[in-house]
Design brief:
The complex is a heterodimer. In chain A, 61% of the residues lie in helices and 2% in strands. By secondary structure, chain A is mainly α. The chains are: A mainly alpha, B alpha+beta. At the A-B interface, helix 6, strand 2 and helix 9 of A face helix 1, helix 2 and strand 3 of B.
Chain lengths: 364, 74
């Protein structure tokens, strides 16, 4: 059989995806999403946890439609191109815990790798320590992969099983439509909304949906992944995925310059703090977890859209951890890290070390 | 001369790539057949193989998995 051509999986395709992600993110910031947070998978899953009332931090409550749309965009792309493959059973409990560690680290830094890039593109130099931590964490993960770390094989599932995550995400969108925000009110039906703070800042629904659906579609085709970009560079000297990350950074920076949204510095950056050690360690924790789970938070959404139930559990782990992070005072704020953020990082690092060691196999 | 067969069905990247790179490190290997079902392994393996001096000889897609045959370039 002839090798099916997938233009998006080539160098130009990954660059186009990175550039499109930048354009959508900056456009959503322009249209109302928080500064340097046009699309942040960690922040937006945290906002969803707040919107559902899993935590009650009043400034970060909104059922962000970007998260369902990213997953559904990838779902549609995988259906269109014969890559919808329901699968499950590769250490699901471990993946849930990895999602917990990933979100805990991400909320100490305040952002997923996408937001780290967006923060840098807006002149927030704290992102540099964060990205250094991310690369260090991924590097630690690769050491274990080289020594035989594996979460084991998944197994194909019935077609219907692959519809579960898209179905859940449609449910999230349905709730948002059933209980829309009432101006100035913190509650609508069963949902919670922010009347101030980042959770109150959002682009119009259709912009968020359209932009994120496009990104989900493109990223499924091109396999865009920020964790994979650094992992493949470290393990195999492959720069393919890195092209996408660089395109993302360069285009976002250029668009910010054009819009006059670049403010270079460490202090007073939007939804960020300048505790360098914790920006580094938070992202190191998250990066290690992404590496062990095989994808950054965005990529986990796309894989879940393709039918990977294990990635779906990682997503749920992140949402649950966001609730704990705010209920237990683990999440950072512009004032600095949370009262128990330091302990949370130590615990997560210990958990990651344990999970890494437990899943070492004797290398062939 | 025999073909080294690697089955990485159910495993996601980077494991298929690691399995391939470890197999070809054994100096006398000149033909590898790798079975995988992760869609991304197709492009990733092709790229890695090219960088290690290997070429894709054939690619067969079955319903559940894909078989890629690779040969070492002279």
């Amino acid at each position: 059989m002839q090798m099916k051509q997938n233009w998006f999986a080539g160098g130009a395709g990954i660059a186009v995806t990175g550039a499109a992600l930048a354009a959508v993110a900056v456009a959503l910031q322009y249209a109302g999403n928080p500064a340097n947070m046009g699309i942040c998978v960690a922040c937006f899953e945290r906002d969803i946890a707040g919107g559902l009332g899993l935590h009650r931090t009043e400034i970060v409550q909104y059922l962000r439609p970007e998260i369902p749309a990213l997953l559904l965009g990838a779902f549609v792309a995988s259906l269109c191109f014969g890559e919808f493959k329901p699968r499950a059973g590769s250490a699901p409990l471990v993946r849930f815990l990895l999602g917990i560690c990933a979100m805990t680290g991400a909320l100490v830094f305040l952002g997923c790798p996408w937001r780290a890039i967006l923060r840098l593109a807006g002149g927030d130099l704290n992102a540099l320590t964060g990205i250094a931590g991310l690369i260090a964490g991924i590097g630690i993960g690769t050491v274990f992969f080289r020594r035989g770390y594996s979460l084991g094989r998944n197994a194909p599932q019935r077609t219907g099983a692959g519809f579960i995550m898209p179905g859940v995400m449609l449910g999230v969108l349905a709730l948002l439509l059933l209980f829309p925000q009432i101006d100035g009110e913190g509650k609508s039906g069963i949902l919670f909304y922010s009347v101030k703070g980042p959770g109150s800042l959002h682009a119009p629904l259709l912009y968020s949906l359209g932009g994120a659906l496009l990104i989900g579609f493109l990223a499924q085709r091109s396999r865009f992944c920020t964790m994979g970009a650094f992992r493949d560079l470290i393990m195999f000297r492959q720069t393919h995925l890195l092209i996408g990350v660089l395109a993302f950074l360069i285009v976002a920076f250029a668009l910010n310059l054009f819009l006059g949204k670049v403010t270079v510095g460490f202090a007073g950056q939007p939804v960020a703090h300048a505790a360098h050690l914790w920006n580094f360690l938070g992202m190191l924790t998250a990066g290690w977890a992404y590496a062990l789970a095989g994808g950054c938070p965005g990529r986990q959404l796309f894989m879940a859209g393709e039918g990977d139930a294990d990635s779906g559990l990682f997503v749920f782990g992140m949402i649950v951890a966001a609730a704990f992070a705010h209920n237990f005072g683990l999440a950072s704020s512009p004032a600095g890290i949370g009262p128990h953020g330091d302990v949370a990082v130590y615990v997560c690092l210990a958990v990651l070390l344990g999970l890494s060691l437990v899943h070492l196999r004797k290398a062939a | 001369m025999s073909t080294t067969v690697i089955d990485v069905c159910g495993l996601a990247c980077p494991e298929p790539l690691l399995a391939f790179s470890e197999a070809v490190k054994k100096g006398d290997v000149t033909e590898v057949e790798i079975r995988f079902d992760c869609a991304f392994a197709r492009e990733n393996l092709s790229r890695l193989a090219a960088s290690l001096g290997w070429a894709v000889a054939s690619l067969t897609e079955a319903r559940e998995y894909t078989v890629m045959n690779l040969t070492k370039s002279a």
